[in-house]
Structures
1.
Amino acid sequence: MTSAQIARKDFEDAVRSRMVWAVVGVFALLMVIIVAAAGTSDLSDSAATNVIAVFSNIGGQLLVPIIALMVGYMAIVGERESGSLRMLFGLSHNRRDVFTGKLASRLGVITVATLVACAVAVAMALVLFGSVPVVTFLGFIGITLLLGGTFTAIAVGVSAMTDSRMKAMGGAIGSYILFTMLWYPAVAGIHYVVEGDFAGYEAPNWYFFLLRLNPLEAYIQVTGSLADQFVWGIIGWQSIVEDIPNSALMDMNSLLLSNRVGGDLPFYLSDWFAVVTMLLWIAIPAVVGYRSFRDADLN
Amino acid sequence: MAAIETSGLTKEYGNETALSDLDLTVAEGEVFGFLGPNGAGKTTTIDLLLDFIRPTAGTATVLGHDVQAETDAVLDRVGVLPDGFDLWERSSGYRHLEFALDSVGGRENPNELLERVGLDPADAERPVGEYSKGMAQRLAMAMALAGDPDLLILDEPSSGLDPHGIRRMQELVREAAADGTTVFFSSHILGQVAAVADRVGILDDGELVTVDTLEGLRETAGVSSKLVVHLDGRPGADLADLDGVTDATFADGRLRVAYADPAVKARVIHRLVESGATVLDFETEEVTLEDLFSAFTETDAEAVDGSTADDGDPDPTEADGGDPESAEVGR
């Protein structure tokens, strides 16, 4: 049970990090401005769920992962570099307790930060539209919490695998670059090799499946379903590495996965499988990180 | 059962050998001083005992438990004061102690622990980020004492402490030992080891050079403390025939008298004054780590001196510079 003591102690410290709250504050302000602009410019056909679409783009794909990586990347390597890890050992905590306690604590911190960010989104929706569809917003908050969890687990896993702050930071930044800038073109490259050209409007299921293994893509898919409209990624890869007619690019909702795949979606492209994918992105980095930490020389 | 027992304990990093074939036994209830310059492998040994790093070869047990197979049992029974640590700067001293007591199931009163290490309760309310190095060291010692561990492992416990703090630390070690606690502590300053240790192990470049009581070490090394008398002119008396004086040399207006019996110092001064010599000043030179080192490892005293030059050691002999005589005393 000593991991609970570590978690409690670490949460107290980490939740007081001014850096995290400064970033949350700046992004919240940014969100207010963007949502307000989006809401006032085009009220005729907008709904409260538009807020979800806007938020999941800026907030979900930028704010939440970046804060999660910031919250997580120092979790273990920080104690290791400062020597306080020896102190934890001296207080009869073993490696497993340290790792699980730290992971639990940092998941707690990102949950608090994400809830604050989501509260801003809900407040904006209430101000602009007077009411919100409760179930949809609860789903949106849930999936956003899950996204925060995936990036926190990745960062804590990286933190457990590295022996210096700089390497951990590099790993955290690298993971974000991987998911936002490398994953989509890499999958598009595979499509090019296998099929001889880039994916068109319609593409094989495996192509979409590989894309959806990216936790950010999984998140986009679920929030898109919740908002009932297509949600762009940070980078609009569809217009870069796919051969999609301009007409489809203009009518954004035609890009929804359910429209691009003929017939019923196979289970591995469904929303719940996207949730499973994100849970795996918590479990796998945690296990890999712990195993590396367990076997490492810690000096 | 030994408090610490290592057998062939070796740690290599690539081609670098941090610790080579260490065979060491520390009895329960003993105060063991682990002496050596920075980088000799003291912290490596401690890290191996805590399963912080894994040995390349050899085994170690702490209080009868294998450090790798039964790490939890080991960690439950030791208190550790590491060398070079940061505390959790946003938490108060009290919160640190509470965490330490929670962690080890200790029932001590935090204020009582604070008093033992000499930390002001008012300071314990403050966040640790505001602490001086010495305050942090005291707090960490209090945390190490929490739960009354059977073995205290202290890595350079006096670093960052003022002379008063160092004395307090030494008293704490004696108190713990009187209580039956085994104390294993490392230092690169002989005087601090000498003040409390029952036995001393000297580590140099990853190798255990010798283990003995301090008296035994002095005898084996043939180094002794010296009286240095500053004279105006040459000494007018022969001192070598005084009982208790082992050697006397004169150079540059300084008479260095090596002695085995501390009581002989007064007689030396007395005889010099009687002989009509003008005594300007006198001081004592304690045996230093450098002396013992050069005696045991036959390394250049200045090399050892250099490795410890920035430690703030108040030993007055260091002011004399390399002191070539200390290397020759042994033979």
Note: The radius of gyration of chain B is 22 Å.
2.
Amino acid sequence: MKNIITIVVRLTLSCLLAASVMGICFIFTSNAKKHNEHVQEQRVIYELLGYKGGAKIPDSMALHEVYRYVITGGDKQSIGYLVPQGHGKDKGFLFVNIDLTGGFLASKNVALSESEALDPKIRDKAFEQAAGPGHTVKFADQTIVVTDSGARIAYLLGGKFQGFKTFINVMLAVDPGFAILGLEVLEHEEDPGLGAEIDQDYFKNQFKGKPFEALKAIDVVKAPIPSDYLQALNGKVSEEDIMKFREQYKGKDVYALTGATISSKAVTEGVKGIVTKFGYRLNVLDKILKEQQLAVSF
Amino acid sequence: MANDKSSLQLITRGILSENPIFKLALSMCPAVGISTTVMNGFMLGVAVLFVQVFSSVTISIFKNVIHPRIRIPTYTLTIATWVTVIDLVLAAYLPEAYAKMGIFVKLIVAFAIITMRLEMFACKEPVKDSFWDGMGMGLGFMVGMMAIGFVRELLGSGAILGYDVLGFKPLLFFILPSAGFFVVGLMMAFFNWIEVYYKRSKGLK
């Protein structure tokens, strides 16, 4: 009995000690980590849009963040959006509530500045107020609509899905017709040398240029990548040839990584899911915005 | 129990006579799974080196207060703490390195070699010796991983450190995990053969 007590007490103390070391470390590093993630995200956004390594971003280009929430009230669920009404201090956001069949429920102005919306806590609170009492709200995802002189040129979609071990966090850029402009893997814990190859160019670039129609039915093939296509994926041939290969392979399936079929399949299915769902949702949102004649910034 | 080895001897022991991969045959899962290129081997080696040294020193400092019945959970806890701390610090202050090292660091928690060194060495020996033993084992692991990675990268993708040296790919098989077993086994045999040969030529038994 005495032994058991000693063991329990000592093990508890060791756990507490370890927990406090990790906790203190977390407190000291979390801000810097968040900052790094934000910087990386910004870099990835511009790289996906084709502005690599500090290329000048035209002033006519603007990013509009759209936030999506799931609203639950009683036994009913609906989808709520926070859509920016324009850039500037007093423009604020528009709250749009849509039921699950795509019917319009309500809309109202939300006094929330763009910088305030970046903080999840403030945003969630503002959204909760807009949704009204008796509703629980849950943040689902955010999308960035990119416009150039008022015309939409791309959408940036973030997404998370199950990989071989844990979640794979990606960011996608699609054009207004939902064809893929680029894919970037932000975070993953796949096995080095096998599944971790998903962040290599020759895998990611296979998605580039795939049209929406091809994406809906995309799958992976277990075969080695033809060597001339591989050269093109790695960017070792001229821009014209890359385009030629992209055209040739745009309707084809994705070549799986050697020894990492599960990871390859996870990414392919994940990308497919993100884009097809987004395509559906955006059409619904656009229809409602048009029907109700709601003015938004994009 | 004091040991009579100098710090240099402790290091060379980890690399040569008690190499974690070729002699102790520990942590074979990563050796087989990850050592597909020299760079991967090096990255994992660096990550293991740091965690091994920090854990060895920690256990050596606290060796007198660790109850013998709960020593294994304590080792696991120590390793997990150091892995988390290194992961957080890298992510916060060295984002460039973290982008490359991140996935390797998180793999380490369950490595046999680290737990085994804590059990066999650090829980009995003074802090200074534990430090050098950790260094030796970490370096030994790194050298072993890089050696396997060298063979597999050369034969599997015809390259060294990502640079194409052969111009063709001899055998794709060597990149696959199953080939890891063959490479590890053959290299183990090779190093043992060298050792036997060396001892014979010196007239040792």
Note: Strands of chain B lie at 159-160, 163-164.
